[in-house]
UniProtKB/TrEMBL annotation, chains A, B:
Belongs to the FAD-binding oxidoreductase/transferase type 4 family. Keywords: FAD, Flavoprotein, Oxidoreductase. SUPFAM superfamilies: FAD-binding/transporter-associated domain-like, FAD-linked oxidases, C-terminal domain. Its cofactor is FAD. This is Glycolate oxidase. Gene3D superfamilies: 3.30.465.10, 3.30.70.2740, Vanillyl-alcohol Oxidase, Chain A, domain 4. It comes from the Bacteria.
Length: 457, 457
């Protein structure tokens, strides 16, 4: 009996997909350059018990298993290899509880980020982590990758909001990790260890997140256009040096602006080569003061146009354009996305290094960035079918990774290592820390069934 | 050659203490009820290389080793057992770097919390985690226990501020974990795993912390006196239900107020049985509004006296009294301290349960609490030499632990499990999660030299 038949026996045929055409849509995430293979089966469980039954089959048969949210990942962490089992959480998509007094919510992993935000907003609450994929990506995927986002520069990333979880571990046992209280230090931080582990330690079946009060006041938006990437980087470094913590500080270059224009006809690219969007959500006079400081930093760095946005709808449209940049570029062809993060003061150098790599390897690189975090997303666009161009782009990719490490940065700020960044991650971590990773993986997943061969070799 | 001689050979006699009278002061923390034994040697290293040399000796000889900051811990995690090696970080007490633009500081573990705060304040920066022990406790100890504090209700705990670290692991190898960038997701969150691991996985030799801008405005303080603990608990639950996130919300009962009065002659206990201190540091009108909300919650819960404090010096004196409560009680005799944390809405029930346990076991229990976090510190005071009273207090202790778990709480909100809370921690975690702890410990400390027998069996 093959693994697909065993899965049918364990959870019923209704939950198991084996049609190759359907499975093809579940075999990979949006990291189009990462390899993947044909899974043996895709399971769409309805409960934790179902997930545990799947893991027991995989453990017994030695079949690798990979979890999957919406498949919006950008590093191949959700990719299946040949013969693997994919667990798609699309049917486990319920907000199980919102506790307004404790400011927590408990959800299934398949809940879409924006759906959670909308639900808790009804109770005057806010789930801050806001990846640009929030309209599609799920909390389970956000947890697996420790997703960041736009407002993380002020409010932190997914790990900062996960208090507790239920997970299925390597023998199919169901465990509860963490807590639901505001604080707690009983034992090791297993919740933090699971968050960002990219599916290599277990499958998360329920998540309790901390919430914040919904922001009541508006945000002050500062718009700046610059002639060069490096000037925009100078403005970012100036904001950091001024001690301002913006609620967002985003960068979009002309290439990305034009891609959004071509799709949505917004006329964004007419004003300058690089757009910086700064925001302050500090209440009252403090917000006015922060917006003025951000504006002064933009002007001091040589903005060709810098202004406070007085029209809230216009400001929202600009941020919407930022969120659309990635899908707009995807329309142009296969994308390779970087996610390097450097100290904020090194952003100008990093942007220069990216420009140099683009020129040196004759590669088209667009740039979007959570600039206030020093988290840059160079986007490599290659004409379909041009193998030489693809090879040059991959060389540029690795040069940029090395450059980020040389500047005291990291290979991945928020997307995860997956398959695409394993070489750089190994360099960043070094052999002793890689050995710690292997030891932890062997300790918690002794059969090696969870997403093997990802993140570290 | 004994382990002390080997240590002298490895790091020089100047760093190794073997005088039993001197060593006695290094053999335990402030958890006076936790057992300890006579160490074989105390080492006071000056560098990471020294620490690595000590760990290599311990690994080679199979000698347990326990790290030590200021010894202000309250659960016995820093206690030595017979024949152990104690590593005291008192000489590794330097602030190595403060980066104002990146808002980070890199320090040695022996830096005192308040010394770090003072140093970074020179650059307009703030290190938020503020355990009541901040004038004495060290960053290394804070990291080992994932220390909380007064402002954590709004600003989070130690783990939320540790970006990276250097540590000596089980074979004496020196590793760098984490990062210095604002974000980063390369590999497992080994930094978060080390924070709060109570010295059971390695010795931390350097820490890079994230800083925030120094708070510029003043804080609004709201003072409330209540007739009963449960009324004060109702006020805490009301603040949570109102969606206010205070910058501090502290509870001190009459027993503790009288102990501070007896020491410092402050006249605190005259006004009522329980004091609640609330604060808002929101800027401008938002702060005024939050203070008014807190005041309304105090009044609505039946405060006998509630008012906005208009005198900043007086407000500061009240918080100073809160910080002095623990040492004031220590003057009265051996203290046993709990650290249970429950959902904020369950604080009234938890306080009633503590009162009931005090009555049932005829035990004197004082109460201080980071009430806004639901983190309570019942303090058990027993006449010196009264063995029966001590036994009754220990029974009350366990009943309160069980009560906290039954209310959906945790055994320890911020002090750590150490030796005192192992029974409750085992109940809280359950056998599967305890097995995960043992697997992780074996994976990272295969020789079992780091603080064995603590936290979990």
């Amino acid at each position: 009996m093959g693994v697909a038949e065993e899965l049918v026996a364990a959870v019923g045929a209704e939950q198991v997909v084996t049609d190759p055409a359907v499975m093809a849509g579940y075999a990979h995430d949006e990291a189009e350059w990462a390899p993947h293979g044909a899974p043996a089966a895709v399971v769409r469980p309805r409960s934790t018990d179902d997930v545990a039954a799947v893991v027991r089959v995989c453990a017994a048969t030695g079949t690798p298993v990979v979890g999957r949210g919406a498949g919006t990942g950008l590093s191949g962490a959700a990719n299946a290899d040949h013969g693997w089992v994919v667990v798609s959480f699309e049917r486990m998509d319920k907000v199980l509880a919102v506790d307004a007094a404790e400011q927590t919510a408990t959800v299934q992993p398949g809940v879409v980020n924006n759906a959670l935000r909308a639900r808790v907003a009804e109770d005057g609450l806010w789930y801050p982590p806001d990846p640009a994929s929030a309209p599609w990506s799920t909390i389970g995927g956000n947890v697996a990758t420790n997703a960041g986002g736009l407002c993380c520069v002020k409010y932190g990333v997914t790990r900062d909001y996960v208090l507790g979880m239920e997970a299925v571990m390597g023998s199919g046992e169901v465990v509860r990790l963490g807590r639901t209280t505001a604080k707690g230090v009983t034992g090791y931080d297993l919740v933090g260890l699971m968050v960002g582990s990219e599916g290599t330690l277990g499958l998360v079946t329920e998540v309790t997140v901390r919430l914040a009060p919904l922001r009541r006041g508006g945000e002050h938006t500062v718009v700046g256009y610059f002639d060069t990437l490096v000037q925009a980087g100078d403005a970012v470094a100036a904001v950091a040096a001024a001690g301002v913590v913006p609620s967002a500080l985003e960068l979009i270059d002309r290439f990305c602006l034009e891609a959004v224009d071509a799709w949505k006809n917004m006329g964004l690219a007419a004003e300058g080569a690089v757009l910086l969007l700064g925001r302050s959500d500090a209440p009252g006079a403090a917000g006015e003061a922060e917006a003025a400081q951000i504006l002064a930093c933009f002007e001091g760095a040589g903005a060709v146009m810098a202004m406070r946005s007085t029209d809230e709808e216009e400001a929202e449209a600009l941020f919407e354009a930022r969120r659309l940049a990635y899908p707009a570029l995807e329309r142009l062809g296969p994308l390779l996305t970087e996610d390097v993060c450097v100290p904020r003061g090194r952003v100008p150098e990093m942007l220069r290094l990216i420009e140099d790599a683009a020129a040196r390897f004759d590669t088209r690189i667009g740039n979007i960035a959570h600039a206030g975090d020093g988290n840059l997303h160079p986007l490599f666009i290659v004409p379909a079918g041009d193998a030489a161009a693809k090879e040059r782009a991959q060389e540029a990719f690795e040069v940029i990774v090395d450059g980020a490490l040389a500047l005291g940065g990291t290979v991945t700020g928020e997307h995860g290592v997956g398959l695409l960044k394993m070489r750089g991650a190994a360099d960043e971590l070094g052999p002793e820390v890689l050995a710690m990773h292997r030891a932890l993986k062997d300790a918690l997943d002794p059969r090696g069934v969870f997403n093997p061969g990802k993140v570290f070799a």
